[in-house]
Amino acid sequence: MRIDILTLFPAMFQGPFSESIIKRAIEKGEVEIYLHNIRDYSEDKHKRVDDYPFGGGAGMVMQIAPIARLIEKLKSERNYDQIIYLSPDGQRFNQKEANKLSLCTNIILLCGHYKGVDQRVRDHYITQEISIGDYVLSGGELAAAVVVDAVVRLLPGVIGDETSALTDSFQDNLLAPPIYTRPSDFNGWKVPDVLLSGNEKLINEWREQMSLERTRQLRPDLLDEE
């Protein structure tokens, strides 16, 4: 899988992509991540990429020209399954969407900044808009990092035990059941007996029941989506 990230601040990705699962996925060749500085595609002598909005109003807007040059260059080199704009008014990102994106070969993630990008970018280049929540960030970089992490961990070969990702919360519109490890008794707080029984059938039934109960209690809205 190849992911191209278009951003004004490439350095923001150094931490998230140089540790843990993402780092290992890159080293194993399961994913290629390329960071592109949009300022490099500005023809302004000061590398300016923003301007005042037509019609007035507060804030600045990212210009279409540098973004268009960069996207056109990438599109001339390969086909992309999705060109995604990270935006607070985009489609709410969830596990189902992460699963779908993990099947892609090439995707572009465009990180907005200021008041956002010129609408013509969204009208003519963007194939999908994604939001990670109903709040506004300073830019799309953190949102892009979240999307990359959620998608890359699903790629075959990235996680040692691939079945682990399939039992995460939200995979079946249910929250994951409680999990425990050693010691079985800590300060009198004991692990449920069923998990120590060795009876796989009873353990699976208990986990399914607990997943349903936790979902009803904490996220009943998920059950409405079934």
From TrEMBL:
The keyword Membrane does not apply. It is found in: Cytoplasm. Belongs to the RNA methyltransferase TrmD family. Its main location: cytoplasm. Homodimer. Residues 1-224 form the tRNA methyltransferase TRMD/TRM10-type domain. Specifically methylates guanosine-37 in various tRNAs. GO terms for biological process: tRNA N1-guanine methylation. It catalyses: guanosine(37) in tRNA + S-adenosyl-L-methionine = N(1)-methylguanosine(37) in tRNA + S-adenosyl-L-homocysteine + H(+). This is tRNA (guanine-N(1)-)-methyltransferase. GO terms for molecular function: tRNA (guanine(37)-N1)-methyltransferase activity. Keywords: Cytoplasm, Methyltransferase, S-adenosyl-L-methionine, Transferase, tRNA processing. Its EC number is 2.1.1.228. InterPro entries: Alpha/beta_knot_MTases (IPR029028), tRNA_m1G_MeTrfase_C_sf (IPR023148), tRNA_m1G_MeTrfase_TrmD (IPR002649), tRNA_m1G_MTases_N (IPR029026), tRNA_MeTrfase_TRMD/TRM10 (IPR016009). CDD domains: TrmD-like.
